[in-house]
């Protein structure tokens, strides 16, 4: 099997493994905490900051590749991947510390702004996983001269950056709705 075929197999495997682990962690029964932790109050703000920076690094990565600055593009995309990993660790930590927050604003905002934004954010996040994994694997581990020629890195990357950026941006929007409406 050639390198690209292995990349596809690894992408599928990593995606399914990610979905399985995240589903288990999100759906696993857990005891409510005895008392609210100060970390729980800090984490939503840190998560929003990480997501905001991730949007900036994603857009910077897109701009740098459009200007054919491949080295900078790699740095920005790797930073974006590290930021999304940090987001996941903080988000899951918040859930296990009892940091679930419900929307308390007006019902009309909840039904027509908050919930649609949340569903689109979650859907785009789910769709982004295989695209991001594929592009991290092809952009990070295949020689630069081969990335554009022997893989679908460019095509997948165009969709990945759009979906991923919109998902992160909507995540920040949902944060503002939850905390300031």
Itemize the secondary structure elements and their pairings.
Elements: H1 3-27, H2 38-66, H3 70-96, H4 107-141, H5 144-150, H6 153-180
Verbal overview:
The protein has helices spanning 3-27, 38-66, 70-96, 107-141, 144-150, 153-180. With 181 residues, the protein is an all-alpha fold. It has one domain. Helix 2 packs antiparallel against helix 3 (70-96), helix 2 packs antiparallel against helix 6 and helix 4 runs antiparallel to helix 6. The longest helix has 35 residues, at 107-141. It is globular, with a radius of gyration of 18 Å.
List keywords for this structure.
6 helices, 181 residues, mainly alpha
Concise synopsis of the structure shown:
The chain has one domain.
The N- and C-terminal alpha carbons lie at a distance of 54 Å
Low-pLDDT runs of 5+ residues are: none
State the major sheet. none
Compute the number of helices: 6
Give the SSE order as H and E letters.
HHHHHH
Please state the average pLDDT score. Answer: 87
Structural class: mainly alpha
How many beta-strand elements? 0
Global morphology: globular
Total number of domains = 1
Radius of gyration from CA coordinates:
18 Å
Give the helix level as a range of percent: over 70%
Q: What proportion strand?
A: under 5%
């Amino acid at each position: 099997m050639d390198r690209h075929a292995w990349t596809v197999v690894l992408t599928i495997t990593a995606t399914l493994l990610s979905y399985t682990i995240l589903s288990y962690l999100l759906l696993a029964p857990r005891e409510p905490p005895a008392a609210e932790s100060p970390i729980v109050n800090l984490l939503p703000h840190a998560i929003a900051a990480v997501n905001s920076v991730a949007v900036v690094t994603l857009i910077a990565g897109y701009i740098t590749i459009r200007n054919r600055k491949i080295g900078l593009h790699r740095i920005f995309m790797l930073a974006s991947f590290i930021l999304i990993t940090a987001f996941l660790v903080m988000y899951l930590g918040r859930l296990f510390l009892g940091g679930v927050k419900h929307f308390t604003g007006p019902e009309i905002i909840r039904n027509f702004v908050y919930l649609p934004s949340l569903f689109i954010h979650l859907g785009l996040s789910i769709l982004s996983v295989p695209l991001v994994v594929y592009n991290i694997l092809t952009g990070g581990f295949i020689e630069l001269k081969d990335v554009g020629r022997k893989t679908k890195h460019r095509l997948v990357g165009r969709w990945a950056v759009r979906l991923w950026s919109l998902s992160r941006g909507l995540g920040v929007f949902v944060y503002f709705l939850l905390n300031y409406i």
